[in-house]
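For the sake of transparency, this paper describes our internal protein records without simplification. The tokens are whole numbers drawn from a learned vocabulary of local backbone shapes. One such record is reproduced below, unchanged from the form in which we store it.

. . .
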Amino acid sequence: MKLLNTLIIILIASIAYGQGEVLSTLKDRTLGKTAKLSEDQLINWHFLDYETDTVPGISLNILYNSGLLPKKGKKVIVAVLDTKLDITHEELKTQLWVNEDEIPGNGIDDDKNGYIDDINGWDFLSNAKGEYIKYEHLAALRIVKRDRRTFEKNTSASLSDSEAKMYQQYQNAKAYYESQLNNYEEGARRMEGWISQNQEAERAILALTEKQSLAAVDLDSLIENVSDTIIIKHAQFISQNNRA
């Protein structure tokens, strides 16, 4: 029993000592970047290293320079299931899968798969010509738009089994779309209220100060010197929201 108690005491002491070492090490480190980032760092911050550069990136530059990467890798084809892919990116353009059954730029569906000139795959969120669309819809809205005419006035009782599955998918998508729409509409109402409050506060302060515009120093002066609580609240409201 004495031996067990002794081992427990040693274990607790070791843990406490180890924690002290960790905390001491952390205190000696720079917690975050304090200097202004260079243009290159702003563009490539995610490649940097927290300890080396004091920028919380993924340490990719260190990995590239470490010599740990294999000189010859195994060929792997990856299907990207996402909204966009920059096929001109310097790290990707020489690594892209190429559809060898398609002749580039001839405007013909050479491999007869339904897609013209699909040399590197296909963007299914683009238009029929494969052209880039800046604002695409979420999947739920696309389902609602596609199936609204078919299912809006129907019930599952009048449908076949396969149609009933699509009908249920439509109902789920519609419910999700409507909930998201309500959230965005509520957000828009709050924003309109904020704009209205901000404009009312600004008009009141401009009338008091007889100025054409307000600077931060004007708001700070009002907060510190006027006794009108409404004006103070107006100044605080503008100051807080314009500096956020």
Notes: Confidence is low (pLDDT under 50) at residues 1-31. The two ends are 62 Å apart (CA to CA).
